[in-house]
Amino acid sequence: MKKKALIINDVLMIPKVLENKVHSLNKEIEVVANQNYDEVYNTLKENSKEIFVAIFDINIENLDNDKIITLLSYSDIPTIILSKEEDDNIKDKHRDFIIEFVKKRSLDSLDYIAKKIENLYLNSKNHILLIEDNEEYLEKMTNVLKYLNINILVAKTGKNAFEYLEENKFHINLIITEDTLIDMKSTEFIHQVRKIKSKDEVGIIVLTEQKNNQELICDSFRHGANDFMSKDFIKEEFILRLNNVIELLYLFNKNKEIANKDFLTGAYNRRFFFDTAQTIVGKNKRKKQKILTAIFDIDFFKKINDKYGHAIGDKALKEFHKILKDNTRDSDIIARIGGEEFIILLEDISFENAKKLLEKLRYKVEDHHIKLNETEFINMTVSIGAVYKNVNDIHVAMKKADDLLYVSKEEGRNQVNLIEE
């Protein structure tokens, strides 16, 4: 189900331009345009769970702004106000859920809003870890954060925070910590975090009640903090500083994706696979746990290319990768290691479940139809070789999986050859 951004505006061109700008950043977001109260009421009634942000132009003629804003507030929709000038009355009256006022200057304003929409959407996939033992400050922060579409985790101590980080169950991309933790200094906490999480993985903001403690500020930055601010923040400052850190992290991640992913399919590339595999192998070697190494090769792929052209061949590769991705966990590593050859590395899985998964993937590929045109479709099949074992060297595991893939090809293709060692 697509997440939706609601834009309330009476100029038809603006929602269309904004939709194009949003889709150029993220095609998973749908833009819904409304022009009056009744349309907004019906949209919220039917789609309130899918709408994660509203953009409201308060300069629409003959429209009761308070009525619309009350409706958005009642539905708990985070809202960006688009206006020729800031309206202090609206700002003060509805401060809680209004994220930002954006002045209508030019198309640059829409570029800015499109980026805000994408960031709010991406926020929902991440977690912020708050380390705070004062309930008053905790409530102050959570009241702001809930309108930024961010999932919140709370820890009272540094030790509790590390339990969240080491558990690796949640995708934590930002930590907000007070400067005086119960069980350790904030600088020591930051230093320990930076041993396991770099600045391009997790941002850290330090909050303090102290006034002008330059030594603490410098020490925090020196140990790896991204920002430092007073606990007596105003909402706008808090949001802007938060967004600056988060946007920088998203930029880092985008650049890493470009470097680590195959341009055509979106699967990870060989370099990333070997870098990540080394870490996974080392971790499971220490835990004495077996992992699954599986190599997939699309059957007769050259014939698809030769008969239907490279455009259809490319389409087959992209759709094949999507099948693998849609039927595995986010933590599983899927990489394209050759023309039509892919590899999956899975940890924390039993032999029986690995067997069921590989057979399920084989069937999903066989059952999938690649659309040539409105009336014609083709199918593809895949051969799989896999080994489930304690791995010391990923190259050895890959060689074994490749040998088993060869057996699958020799025995007629469209089958799984899996062994446990």
Notes on the structure:
This protein has 421 residues and is an alpha/beta fold. The protein contains 15 helices and 17 strands. The protein folds into 3 domains: 3-122, Response regulator (Rossmann fold, 3-Layer(aba) Sandwich); 125-258, Response regulator (Rossmann fold), CATH 3.40.50.2300; 270-420, 2-Layer Sandwich (Alpha-Beta Plaits), CATH 3.30.70.270. The longest helix is centred in the middle third of the chain and has 26 residues, at 235-260. The two termini are 41 Å apart. The mean pLDDT is 90.
Give a short synopsis of this structure:
The chain has 421 residues and is α/β, with parallel strands linked by helices. The chain contains 15 helices and 17 strands.
